[in-house]
Structures are given as structure tokens and as C-alpha cells.
Amino acid sequence: MESFVHLRKGRTPKRLHADLDGLKDDELGRGGFVGRTANIYRRHDPTAYRAVGPLRPLDVMTSELKPSDATDAAGTPLLLFSNPDCRISLSRRTEPMPFFVRHVDGDLLSFVHAGAGLLETEFGPLRYRVGDWVYIPKATTWRQVPDEETTLLMIEATDEFRVPPAGPLGRHFPFDPSQVTIPEPQAIDDDGRDEYEVRLIDEGGPTSLFYQHNPLDVEGWRGDNFPFTFNIEDYNVIASESVHLPPTVHLFMQATGVAVMNFLPRPAETVPGTERPPWYHRNVDYDEVSFFHGGDLFGIPMPPGLISHAPQGVHHGAPEKARERARRKFDEQDRVGWKVISIDTTRRLTPSAEVLAHDLGQHA
Ligand SMILES: [Fe+2]
């Protein structure tokens, strides 16, 4: 049971995530970072282990992966991770889709890591650019027409992606609703072909529906179930002077068993002694996938396109060297420059064979 009383035993710093005096700051918390918790102060780096067996952190450069849609207009995204609540895939499409798609198992939320182009949807056209989140409701028909090679990190839920409750942060948390782009209806004329294929994307299949007219023939729509884009440049990042805030304040959208967060550039904590990098933890109740869009962490570039998976129960965190550097450069650095997309899931994620084959082996 949660209590306002937090016990303090043995040697502990007076402030949270600060003034460690050589100790390693490790959190054992329930429900992500919002449940019962214990901050544990240890002698040694808890990520200094060698893992044998399936529950080990993985790091993969997605630029090394080859989704079939990168080279074949009829190709598909590449599955990276999955569990009963979601599938996480990588797409690198260069050619317009010669078909339409409809994700029939749940909503689709995609992050544009690179490229620009057009999504033709039943609700009308949506332009996309780098840094966009693209939300497409379950069973909506759409088609991608890239202007250039487009790298998407795609998250398919098995139900709805919802905007989290605003709570005490107000109606403009987690983002200003006026900053989303919503399509205007635009029916598309037939182009003379015999049939229009709509591929149903689901766990089984494959199934295709064939129409004799362009299925994007909507003259108008109304309601509250529609696709939209939102660019991370328009995200209002929440910051604190005296403590590194938990990832939950950066929650963007959520589905059952899936939470999606944006870690974006912000002012660094300024109170002397404050630990700026996230503390060590083992996400007791969540698997965690982090996708490095770019930016830097206190002057050290973050490799764009790196994706890492930390299974629940297994320690992870910034390397000790990076923590020492952040303390050393405390007076020189005043910004956190990272651009990271994070996906936390309550059920264990299974990495695909391609991901396992490309693991950089940092914990092997
Ligand atoms: Fe984490």
C-alpha cells in the first residue's frame, strides 16, 4: 500500500536523485514510476553484468535492418518487437504504396524518424515530415506516398491509443490540442484501373479486399474518431530545477498495456548536486523500448536510429562514465539535448529474429 511516509534506512542522501557522494542511485518502483517505490543506494554500477539467456537488454542500429518496403513497392514493414498488446515495426518506404492498407487489430501510431510525404486517408490527405507523430484509428483505410525515403517507427496497439488525462497539469497536457493537424475530406477520383486493393493488416492473414472504385471516396465526415499528425517540435516539455523528473511527465499517448513518451530537449536541472541523467532502474512492471531520434546528451551525440530494449526486471541506465561527465560538466552545460521516443509495455516484448541477429551485444 502507498503511504506518505517514506522510510530512510542506512546511508542515504538528504535529497532525491542528488548529492550521491559516490553511491549509485537505483530505483525499485512499481507501476513504472508512479507506484510504491524504493530508492536504493549501492556501491557498484548495477548495469555492470553479463547476461546469459533471453532477458537481456538489446541494442540495434535500425539503419542496419532491411524492411522489404525499402526496396519493393509491394513490400511491408519489418517487425521488431511484439506482445499481445502491441507490435512495433520499422518501415523505410521509398515508393508509393500500389495498394491501400487498413490496420484492423488496433490503432496505429507512427513516428517519422526521417523523410517526408503524403498519407492519403479516408478522412483526407495528411502531409508528414520529420518529427511527426501520425495517429491513424483502427480500421481506417490509407495509403502512403513518400516524397523521399521515409523511416517510420510504427506502434500498432490492439485497442485504442488515447491521450492521457490532463490531471493537474491542465488541458494542454500532454500537448496543446490546437497544434495537431487534422485532415480535410478530399474524395479521390478513380484512375481507370480495374481494381483497388485494400490490404488488411492483422495478426493472421494475409487478407485483401478488392474494390472497383478508389476506396478513398469520402466527401465529408464528422465525429471524434479521425487521424492526425503532431510534431514533436510543438511538444511542451516539463522541466524542474531541482530534480530529474520521472518519464511519466513526458507521456504522449497510451493504449492498454502500452505507454508512449517523448524525451525532448529542455533546460537542465540547475540546483548544484542534482543528478541530471536518469537514475539506474529495472522497470519492475514495464518492458522498455527507446528509439534514439537524435540530439545529444550533455554534448555527446545520441546515435540516430539506435533502438534499445530493456526487459522488465533487468537493470539499465546511462553508463557510469556519462554520469561522471554530467557532474564534471555541470557548470558548462545548461541543456539536455536528447530526442528519444520511448515505448513502455506491461507485458513482455518478444524481439524478432532480425532484432536478435543485429544486437550490438553490449550485455552479451
Ligand atoms: Fe528505463
How is this fold's topology laid out?
Blueprint: E1 24-29, E2 37-42, E3 58-61, E4 78-83, E5 86-93, E6 100-103, E7 108-114, E8 117-121, E9 124-128, E10 132-136, E11 141-146, E12 150-157, E13 196-201, E14 207-211, E15 228-231, E16 251-255, E17 258-263, E18 266-267, E19 280-281, E20 287-297, E21 300-301, E22 306-310, H1 320-328, E23 335-345, E24 350-351, H2 353-357
Bound molecules: fe (ii) ion.
What features would you describe in this structure?
The chain has 2 helices and 24 strands. It is mostly beta strands and 364 residues long. Strand 13 and strand 14 form a beta hairpin. It is elongated. It binds fe (ii) ion.
| Topology order in helix (H) and strand (E) letters | EEEEEEEEEEEEEEEEEEEEEEHEEH
Number of helices: 2
State the share of residues found in helices, binned by percent: under 10%
Q: Shape, please?
A: elongated
- Rg, Å, rounded: 22 Å
The poorly predicted ranges are none
- Percent of residues in β-strands: 35-45%
Q: Report the bound ligands by name, code or SMILES.
A: fe (ii) ion
Overall pLDDT level: 95
Task: Report the sheet with the most strands, covering strand number, pairing sense and barrel closure.
Answer: 8 strands, antiparallel
Measured distance between first and last alpha carbons: 37 Å
What does this entry show, briefly?
With 364 residues, the chain is mainly β. It has helices spanning 320-328, 353-357; strands at 24-29, 37-42, 58-61, 78-83, 86-93, 100-103, 108-114, 117-121, 124-128, 132-136, 141-146, 150-157, 196-201, 207-211, 228-231, 251-255, 258-263, 266-267, 280-281, 287-297, 300-301, 306-310, 335-345, 350-351.
